Amino acid sequence: MNSAQAIMFLKNNQPFSKDTEERFEVIKKYNDVRVHFLNYPDPRCIPLFLNSFGEGNGYGVYQLIEDVLMKYSVEQVVPHLISALHSEHIGVRYWCSHIAASFPTPSLIPPLVHLLSDPDPDIRCAAITALSQIEDDRIISILVGVLEKEEDPDVIDLIQEALEESNIGAAVP
Question: Which residue ranges run through the membrane (predicted)?
Answer without folding.
Answer: none
